[in-house]
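Lecture 7, part B: from sequences to assemblies.

Below are the input chains for today's worked example.
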Amino acid sequence: MKDPVATPRIHDVARLAGVSPATVSRVLSNPSIVSERTRAAVEKAVEETGYTINLTARNLRQQQVGAVLALVPNLANPFFSEILAGISETLRAEGLSLLVLDTRQTDPGAAGRGLQAYLNRSRADGVIVLDGSLDRSLFEHAACPPVVQACEWIDGLHGPRVLADNQTGARLAVEHLLALGHRRILHLTGPASNSLSVSRAAGVAEALEAAGLPPAPRIEGAFSLGSGHTASAGVLSLPERPTAVFCDNDEMAIGLMAGLRAAKIRTPEDISIVGFDNIEMSAYVSVPLTTVRQKRAHLGRRAAEMLLAHRETPSPDTEIILPVELVIRDSTTALRKD
Amino acid sequence: MKDPVATPRIHDVARLAGVSPATVSRVLSNPSIVSERTRAAVEKAVEETGYTINLTARNLRQQQVGAVLALVPNLANPFFSEILAGISETLRAEGLSLLVLDTRQTDPGAAGRGLQAYLNRSRADGVIVLDGSLDRSLFEHAACPPVVQACEWIDGLHGPRVLADNQTGARLAVEHLLALGHRRILHLTGPASNSLSVSRAAGVAEALEAAGLPPAPRIEGAFSLGSGHTASAGVLSLPERPTAVFCDNDEMAIGLMAGLRAAKIRTPEDISIVGFDNIEMSAYVSVPLTTVRQKRAHLGRRAAEMLLAHRETPSPDTEIILPVELVIRDSTTALRKD
DNA sequence: AGAGATAATGAAACCGATTTCATCGACAAT
DNA sequence: ATTGTCGATGAAATCGGTTTCATTATCTCT
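Predicted structure of the full complex, as structure tokens:
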């Protein structure tokens, strides 16, 4: 006794239309090579049966997966999810699915093992890596599908990259502070090994050097609200209190402002603060944040486009640098003379 | 001339181990039915060849996809991405992949068509819907895989659900305001048709009724910072200005606070504000927000678990209601007598 | 009219695993 | 000694499409 409402197969459509399964397949994937008459007949049969293709079967034959994997350090962070939205948009237009994996999910030891299983040509046709802290060896084996790095990058790992112009962004931020008269500028960084922190530090150094100033002191944070908050204690305990702080992202900047406020230090009157990223919230906090805007959704789209291009013709280590822009709001002001 | 480094197939492993492909398959998926000796030989051969299974082939034979699709209204919204993180965690433990689709991506007309293509048994083994604004007809056809609704829900759509206790949360929030002496309480809602807004409105009504008060006036927002900001004008133009506002989420609450601040209305001295969700930012804004905490990652995990259970034995319309909790911070205070 | 090119189509091989079914040998029970 | 049971294994069918290759019909050109 067989299921009376089994979903139809290509064979069923073929029989109804009076053609072979091969012809039905052709109508579905390359209609131009089928005669007008049969095409119409097949389309009618598809309609009547309510046939939908079985993608697994197609993918098996075509040696593909129909999906791209995005590796995100922290799914719960809006910064990354907006990039994801951009990736998703581009992939969807190509009929590809977006697979998402949070790289921080399992404990550090198990993380590699678990990831390895996903970095396989049978899991995804390509990978977009948003986590610069992963080990390059994860991606350097035959079974790993093509990789594109976006936003952050992994030292020594080859392949295309899409990055924001972090160095210029940091330089613009610091130049802005210098123009306002600030000289004692602190840099609140992400984790020292993070590729973003490194290139932003270069931008900071560039601006200070050009002004003939010594390198900026640093406090290391973790890109989180909490770490920005914690850093406020460090800022205040410095022998020479800085008059301005450049933060490697907006969340730390907001956390820092909260910490300073609790210590009765006002922004921007007592300390000017600049962030990076221009997250939506930055415009709505009590002192709207001066920051560096980067277009996250656009970055995601470009990354997806690169991956698609890279699959067709494996390109060399092309690197796209997307422009950034300083957004001046209320958290920075001219240094008070006293 | 064939590729000298073609990835090994199960056949290659079998030959090296001196057994049949069937036996290799058994070692990989059900080792207990293979003798100790052969199992060791096969495992050694797998090791030597670096064999990794082709999931597409397995999935075709096993009539599954190995992936679950999450339908999110807005990927860029941290509220949803934290639920996603929970879903991802549970799925990963089961070896399943997480597919993500942003339902707001395409224009409204095309949205249905585009979605339909993804709501197919050959795309995913199951679907977790986080968007209550979708039409139930999308899910009510034979080709659609099992559906679990999480967080929001779709009117009239059957199947398991995981929800936060929205009504109780709203009631607790309003009871808190009532206890502080507030009587003119406004409800800043999400879109009127949204299922969350509806059940939270019920909680608001419940609390007011119990206190013998008339229903609260409402302003409709869109769960966004911007809509909260905009709502401030509406709040201030009311003939009788409210002394407290209950907002359907934290982002609107924060947006509202920003708007009120710009109009020189202080929180909580002039107006008390309560939010919902307890997003991380709420603790760091200049006036830390009183809000209703719901455990988003946990909600995601439960949804994934339900889906897995539901696949095995299609359960009736079970509904899980997760507890919520009032978090009192600084944005609410006792009504000033004057 | 005949040769050659072209278009449309179907039969069958193929993608790479899993799973059914049959076989074989070892061992226990009668 | 014979039969039955059980465990381990391999041959072959299977999942549901796509694609190659061969065949036939149609058309063009000399």
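Note for the exam: Chain B has a mean pLDDT of 93. Keep this in mind when comparing with the next example.
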